[in-house]
Amino acid sequence: MYSVHYPRAVQNANRQLLEAERRVLNVTTAGRLRVGVGYPNTYKVGMSSLAFQWAVELAASCEDVGVERFFADPSTNIGRTLDTGSAIGDLDVLAWSCSFELDAVNLLATLDAAGIPRLRDQRNHRHPLLILGGAVASINPLPLAPVIDVFVLGSAELLWPPLLALVQENSDRGRLLLELADRDGFFVPAHHLGADHKPNGKRRRIEKRDAHMADPTMVPASHVITPHTEYRSRGLVEMSRGCPEKCRYCWVSYNYGRLRCYPSEAILEKVERIARMTDRVGFVATAVGDHPQLAEILEECRRRDLEVALSSLRIPAMREEVLRPLAESGARSVTIAPETGTDELRRRLNKPITNAAILEAADTALRCGIDSLKMYFLIGLPGETDEDVTGIADLLRQVQEMMVGRGRERGQVGTLHAGFNVLVPKPYTPYARQPMLTRKETRRRMQLVLDGTAGVGNLRIDRPAYRESLWQAYLSRGDWSAYAALETAASGCSLGELFASHRREIEASALNPVEGDPVWQFVTSAPVRDRDLSPSGKPLADEVKG
Ligand code: SF4
Questions:
Q1: Which of 11, 119, 148, 484 has the most CB atoms in a 10 Å sphere around its CB?
Q2: Is 349 in the pocket of ligand 1 (CB under 6 A)?
Q3: pTM score, two decimals?
Q4: What is the pLDDT at residue 541?
Q5: What is the per-residue pLDDT for 542?
Q6: Pure H helices in 152-263
Q7: What pLDDT, on a 0 to 100 scale, did the predictor assign at position 531?
Q8: pLDDT given at position 355
Q9: Mean pLDDT within 475-483
Q10: Phi, psi (5° rounding) for residue 155?
């Protein structure tokens, strides 16, 4: 029951969202510590994020903690929680899971709507403690450092419940921040930034290691199913962390570490939990196809009559024993990321997969009963030539011809969907210092693709959203001063207006190579392999240093 006066339309919208949810967990909103777990975007986007649902579940597992969700969604009354309608300013802790830099703007809008001062300096112990986790915290927390009290650098399982325990133990805000500042896995701007707003030392990121992966309680899975997500009533289970590859543009591979898989029994336990709520399950991971028991897991899902979807597959994982049970479980489409059009550029970006292998993978998928494909490409990779770009068009033509051939045999031709992004150089990757491609050159290269695919039927091409990418590149590599542009963006202006006021600094940062020691490069990663630890549990490298 809502505790406040709500516009009737919002009450109805919220009630409909809550009534549509099926749950396997009773998340209590009552507790001595009141915690809001937020997503800086709409309900639909937030509830589609497994990381967000997992953060709610982990908080709910802590003793005497009441948990409520909130979104940056006017239809759910931004600034108030969805679950009880409480003003978020009345809670003790507000923690966002944020995986996309541009959502930082929505985070500021949420604070404004709640009447909570944006700046740390203007808040005190009577305001909620503001916490940010998720990829954005680790990629580059500096643009939000004037706002957030504590950034969580790494796995929620290892850092989020202990953080809440510390909040419960320390009623004094100053002591709490000091305590957190002393621990690996947290970035506390009040203690870790100098007077010049630059980090005064390195901070260590903590990821799940082998032993944690073997623990069934550490397998993230949906605990709420709703039709109002991107995946419409599909429950998600994480399969693995890390990736066996190290593509040179990929932040995930350089920060999540080498591939570690959850045991199949633990994954199937979570599948069983999801099956109590829905018959649609999705497996997610950066390298979902590389789980050594994937074929058996899919077979088990088929036996239980579950409809299965996988997040993007690495091309070498497009094997018949994976694709056939997937198609038999109802999947109609798979997603792969060839990134570029020639073997040579793929080799240079450390993705040594040939066009021949991509065509073979596509053919295997079609033979196994998949009828539509999504292929993702990057424009603006370092060293990219026109030949690499026209190679994309050639590849799309060949895949489409293959789809038409296989489709005729079946009497139905699926759709080929080609999604394009412009490379946003990410911190901690080998391309971190590279300039982003200019808008003019991005347009010219995209035109080569469009010319090369003219007349190809059943092909949908999504062009890069250039200005958004430029803005994202700025926030990925910006320092404290990038907060000024965030403030402008949060005032409700359009991207055009934002660029009218901040074009100079955005372009100077995104379109030029990075020289010297970048200010954002201060997060290091702890080992993810147990064998990289000494018997004392310390990273071997530290032990050697003495
Ligand atoms: S295969 Fe995918 S997740 Fe792995 S390094 Fe390459 S882009 Fe990243």
A1: 148
A2: no
A3: 0.95
A4: 63
A5: 60
A6: 156-169, 173-181, 189-192, 210-213, 251-255
A7: 77
A8: 98
A9: 96
A10: -65, 130
108, 490 in Cβ contact below 8 A?
Answer: yes
CA of 289 to the centre of ligand 1 (A): 12
Domain ranges in the chain with CATH number 3.80.30.20: 210-502
Ligand 1 and 353: CB distance under 6 A: no
Distance 243 CA to ligand 1 centre (A): 6
**Cβ count near 257 (within 10 Å):** 21
Q: Is 253 in the pocket of ligand 1 (CB under 6 A)?
A: yes
Residue of 250, 251, 312 to mutate, ligand 1, most atoms within 8 A of C-beta: 250
- Whole-number Å distance, alpha carbon 442 to ligand 1 midpoint, is 23
Which pLDDT value is given to residue 1? 44
Count, residues in the chain: 546
The finding on whether 238 has its CB within 6 A of some atom of ligand 1 is no
The secondary structure of 387-429 as a DSSP string is: HHHHHHHHHHHHHHHHHHHHHHHHT----EEEEEEE----TTS
Rounded to the nearest 10 degrees, the angle between the axes of helix 294-303 and helix 320-328 is 20
Q: From CA 475, how far away is CA 282, in angstroms rounded?
A: 31
* CB 29 within 8 Å of CB 80: no
Residue 546 has pLDDT above 50, yes or no: no
Q: What is the pLDDT of residues 190-249, one digit of tens each?
A: 999 999 999 999 999 999 999 999 999 999 999 999 999 999 999 999 999 999 999 999
For the chain, give the mean pLDDT.
Answer: 94
Ligand 1 atom nearest to CA at 350? 6
Q: What is 210-502's CATH topology?
A: pyruvate-formate lyase- activating enzyme (3.80.30)
Pairwise CA distance, residues 518 & 220, whole Å: 34
Q: What is the pLDDT of residue 545?
A: 46
Q: pLDDT for 251-279, tens place per residue?
A: 998 899 889 999 999 999 999 999 999 99
Question: Using CA atoms, how far apart are residues 296 and 354, in angstroms rounded to an integer?
Answer: 28
13-22 per-position pLDDT tens digit: 889 999 999 9
Single-letter residue type at 326 = L
Q: Grade residue 5 by pLDDT with cuts at 50, 70 and 90.
A: low
In angstroms, what is the span from residue 55 Cα to ligand 1's centroid? 24
Q: What is the DSSP string of 292-315?
A: TTHHHHHHHHHHTT-EEEES---G
Closest protein CA for atom 1 of ligand 1:
245
The rounded Å distance from CA 309 to ligand 1 centre is 19
Residue 250, ligand 1, Cβ within 6 A: yes
314, 349, 353, best to mutate for ligand 1 pocket (most atoms within 8 Å of CB): 314
Q: How far is the CA of 42 from the centre of ligand 1 (A)?
A: 27
Q: Check if 316 has its Cβ closer than 6 Å to any atom of ligand 1.
A: no
Nearest to 522 by CA among 272, 149, 66, 187: 187
Q: Give the closest residue (by CA) to ligand 1 atom 2.
A: 286
Atom of ligand 1 nearest to the CA of 351: 6
Query: Per-residue pLDDT for 534 more than 80?
Result: no
Distances from the Cα of 112 to the Cα of 199, 224, 501, angstroms: 27, 28, 21
